[in-house]
Amino acid sequence: xxxxxxxxxxxxxxxxxxxxxxxxxxSLIKYEQIKTTLPKAKFLKPQADKIITLGKKETLQTTKxxxxxxxxxxxxxxxxxxxxxxxxxxxxxxxxxxxAGFRYGDNAPMAIIxxxxxxxxxxxxxKKNREPAKEAExxxxxxxxxxxxxSFNHE
Length: 155
What we know:
about 160 residues, alpha+beta, three-stranded antiparallel sheet, 5 helices
């Protein structure tokens, strides 16, 4: 019987489930908003809230626990320095789940999970300017229209 079992299994082995949770936590901390399936979002929400609560405590022990759970020092630093300061006055409920329709391929229910007072600019962390890339493409005249480099050295 499953009395008192809190976690969903998500049809994965325990190692796969732990890796999935860690990767989704890191993405949520980095971008402050991610789109995923509804069961994964419901699985992630309590874990993300626990991570923020851990970050609010200013001890070496909690820092070590954060680094061990996230396996990423940048994410742990963002939790300790940015997110814990943002939610200093809030007692829980740091994330929200917004239902986002159904996925086209398999009709899976989709959801957006985000921090409550999120930074809008966090979504653009990895985005690079496209302008220099377009200028570099125009300067290269050894590429054909398909982007393939060709040469005629037959020896």
